[in-house]
Amino acid sequence: MRFSIVQQYLDEADPGFILFAGDSNAELHSTSGSMCGRTVANVATSGATTQSYADFFEKLSFPVRPRAAVLTIGTNDLNRKKDPRGARSGAAFETALDALLVRMRSITETVLVTAVPPVDHNTERSIDPLAVGDYSKRIQAACERLGCRFIDPFASLREGDTGYGLANVNQDGKHLKRYKPVFNAIGASLCPDGRLQDH
Questions:
Q1: C-alpha triplet 94, 28, 35: angle, nearest 5°
Q2: Count of H helices and E strands in the chain?
Q3: Distance separating alpha carbons of residues 179 and 145, to the nearest angstrom
Q4: Is pLDDT above 90 for 195?
Q5: What is the pTM of this model?
Q6: Residue 78 vs residues 14, 55, 106, 157, 178: alpha-carbon distances, Å
């Protein structure tokens, strides 16, 4: 169902649009306004792991190429049962992330990838909070390898290097109470002069 919805978004997208991709932390970004003077199409999918989203994204078609893409992914890879900081899980994450980024770079030359958002203390039993920082570093390294840009728009919301958010930042464990400030920070990084210039 989500695939049909987002493919419709892409089929009707305006030339030069900005693409938002990833898991629910990307899907919850409001697309009621524009970013950098351009329309936004949100093709993120709630509950997606990096591998499942890479598979999902590979099947999408892009009749109109986006001018830029923003990716937020990784939260659903941090389940303690999967030993996210273990060598096997870490390698699987990097392999899936690389495949996703290569595909994204094939449809637009400007790809901005965020750090993994902070989580709430009440997720401690199910999520490894230290993996938030670990996977963010893996994302940053992937961007250095593959030519995307890394940004941490959640830096001011974090409780040091713990992986947790500051008090009242999260609302239900893995999500934020307010996404608009993050959306604004991403826009400021993508187009510091207010508009995304064409090449």
A1: 90
A2: 6, 5
A3: 29
A4: no
A5: 0.94
A6: 35, 19, 27, 19, 22
